[in-house]
Amino acid sequence: GINRLMQGLHTAIMFLSSIALLTASLILCSSVFLRYFLKIPTDWQDEMSVFLLVGATFMCAGYVQSQRGHIGIEALAGLLSPLLNKLRLLFCDLVSLLFCSFFTWKSMLLLHEAWVDGQTTSSSWAPPLWIPYGFMTLGMTLLSLQILLQLVAGLVRKEKQHGRIHYWHSLRAGHPDRDVLRHPDCFRPRHHCRAVHVDVHAG
Predict the structure, then answer these.
(1) What distance in Å separates the CA atoms of residue 116 and residue 113, rounded to the nearest whole number?
(2) Which of the pair, 69 or 158, is modelled with greater confidence?
(3) What does DSSP say about strands 179-182 and 195-198: parallel, antiparallel, or unpaired?
(4) pTM, whole model, 2 decimals?
């Protein structure tokens, strides 16, 4: 589905971004060599490197989010219950989605303004500014979409777990024999799981 499509897109972007980072490194190294050893002035290497770095940074943001790789403070994770931690993650995803959506909208405005007005940098090379703004817009759009998918997946997962609890209770209520009911806490990781023994006597 759409998750598989996003993963394929993220993989392709990561490959291209790796090439962009390598290219930026080579450009900067060649610029240092030309300026300080051959005394040849350069007027495009710095801006080219910045454009490549901006593109790689923003375009990879969606992939990093898909791996939950952004820097986060987990001080509360060990203090809260599993249910509160899930609610905390959903709330953080919602706030992140709102912020990234606003950032995407502002990037679109900058991209449109740079395209219509023909804005360029102030250097003698003067590349168009719609290039970095385009990377910003596309990267933030992918990031917002990835957060939205994770938010929806978290809500759907919560509904499925709620349905499983009702399933177990209704199933065991119809079978009058000694069995093991899994406590709702069993939706924690396996090593936190508890079991509850229930005796049901007919008549």
Answers:
(1) 5
(2) 69
(3) antiparallel
(4) 0.72
Cα separation of 198 and 185, whole Å?
16
Q: How far apart are the first and last CA of the chain?
A: 50
Q: How many helices (H) and strands (E) does the chain have?
A: 5, 2
How far is it, in rounded angstroms, from Cα 18 to Cα 93?
Answer: 27
Neighbours of 136 (CB within 10 A): 23
Residue 42 CA to residue 30 CA, distance in Å, equals 10
Q: Are 6 and 146 in contact (CB under 8 A)?
A: yes
Q: Tens digit of pLDDT for each residue in 4-54? A: 888 899 999 999 999 999 999 999 999 989 888 888 888 888 899 999 999
pLDDT tens readout for residues 70-84: 766 677 777 778 888
Distance CA 151, CA 97 (A): 9
Neighbouring residues of 193: CB distance < 8 A, sequence distance ≥ 6 = 182, 183, 185, 186
Q: Which residue has the tokens 């900058």?
A: 110
Half-sphere exposure of residue 121, counting CA atoms within 13 Å on the CB side?
Answer: 15
Q: Percentage of residues in the chain with pLDDT exceeding 90? A: 46
CA–CA separation, 17 and 15 (whole Å): 5
